[in-house]
Design the sequence.
């Protein structure tokens, strides 16, 4: 049985995740070494060493969740502690949180920091997938099948938004929308949810209008269309990102040869790491990242379509949409397609919390894929064998009676 299970793992997905993560580790070193020395006055490999440890921890989490049967996650014995820890973690920010980039998003644990909102993404995916999978028989009963799971979503969204971290809150909401749209509920109920969301979000936006529509955020909205209009102030980040992307050309300047990371491009190893990749490795480096991310997202959708279990299918949809949405926001912001929001690029940007939650999520996705492959390969084979034996047995009986 163990041999059959091991053969059923999606090794193509595992290899792509590993390649992209290792590529990200190399690029974190290249993008951060000048920042480490100039801004933080630490050794050049400071962020590289921390990211290497982050990757090891994420790898351990990946292995654990890849081996843990995903179907057990819909048990209340797992859902209740998970929901409780998520809400406690987000609530603890207001007591022990640390303000970074104008948001109360981090809790310091000794020499390390943790970002609870990153893990809230996975928590929302598991919770909504589990609850809506259980409610399939009455998914279109609005008060009974649709509304109850959304109480948790609204609480998480509110706690993340008031930090304020509107980028992460928006990602959580978009992930939830992808799960809801795939849950099987009808258009009438979806329309009701849209109206309720508008009614709930509008007062929150009015209450927090000074935060939502702050001068800094409005500058991001107005400057992304023409960053060179105010290149020294509101357009500084995007203008330098353009310089990095434009100077890379087809083949790039060479690994480690970026000019913009020498103090010109802020957050070169986090939000703008794709700009450094473009400058150093050109279109080939960017193409590699896009192909890997695209493969992970499309593979997740394929797994969701193949999975006959509603819980597994919704998990795959939620996880693949999380990677796709976050990738689009990061890449779109760095290239000027959408306003900047300060979201890391999955698997590539520096960040322990982001990498750890991705390790957990990818392990779950690989586990769902394993169950799909196992059922397709061996259950169908066993069924065919049983049918053959039954047919053979009935034939022998017929011949004996003749």
Sequence:
């Amino acid at each position: 049985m163990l041999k059959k299970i091991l053969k059923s793992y999606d090794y193509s997905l595992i290899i792509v995740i590993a390649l992209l993560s290792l590529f990200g580790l190399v690029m974190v070193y290249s993008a951060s070494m000048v920042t480490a020395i100039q801004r933080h006055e630490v050794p050049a490999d400071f962020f590289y060493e921390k990211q290497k440890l982050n990757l090891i921890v994420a790898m351990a989490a990946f292995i654990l969740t890849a081996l843990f049967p995903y179907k057990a996650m819909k048990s209340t014995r797992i859902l209740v502690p998970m929901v409780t820890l998520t809400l406690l973690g987000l609530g603890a920010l207001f007591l022990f949180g640390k303000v970074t980039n104008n948001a109360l998003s981090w809790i310091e644990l000794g020499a390390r920091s943790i970002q609870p909102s990153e893990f809230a993404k996975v928590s929302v995916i598991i919770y909504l997938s589990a609850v809506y999978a259980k409610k399939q028989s009455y998914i279109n009963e609005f008060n009974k099948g649709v509304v109850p799971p959304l109480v948790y979503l609204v609480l998480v969204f509110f706690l993340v938004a008031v930090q304020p971290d509107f980028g992460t809150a928006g990602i959580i909401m978009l992930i939830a929308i992808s799960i809801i749209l795939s849950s099987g509920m009808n258009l009438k109920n979806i329309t009701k949810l849209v109206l309720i969301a508008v009614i709930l979000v509008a007062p929150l936006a009015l209450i927090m209008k000074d935060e939502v529509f702050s001068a800094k955020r409005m500058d991001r909205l107005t400057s992304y269309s023409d960053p060179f209009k105010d290149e020294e102030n509101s357009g500084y980040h995007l203008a330098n990102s353009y310089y990095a992307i434009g100077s890379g050309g087809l083949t790039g300047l060479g690994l480690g040869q970026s000019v913009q990371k020498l103090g010109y491009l802020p957050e070169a190893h986090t939000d703008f790491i794709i700009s450094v990749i473009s400058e150093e490795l050109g279109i080939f480096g960017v193409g590699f990242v896009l192909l890997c991310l695209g493969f992970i997202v499309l593979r997740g959708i394929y797994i969701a379509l193949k999975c006959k279990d509603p819980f597994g299918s919704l998990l795959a949809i939620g996880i693949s949409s999380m990677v796709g949405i976050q990738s689009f926001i990061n890449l779109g912001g760095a290239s000027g397609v959408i306003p900047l929001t300060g979201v890391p690029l999955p698997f590539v940007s520096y960040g322990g919390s982001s990498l750890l939650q991705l390790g957990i999520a990818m392990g779950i996705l690989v586990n769902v894929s394993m169950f799909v492959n196992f059922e397709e390969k061996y259950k169908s084979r066993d069924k065919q064998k049983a049918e053959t034996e039954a047919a053979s047995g009935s034939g022998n009986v017929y011949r004996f009676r003749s």
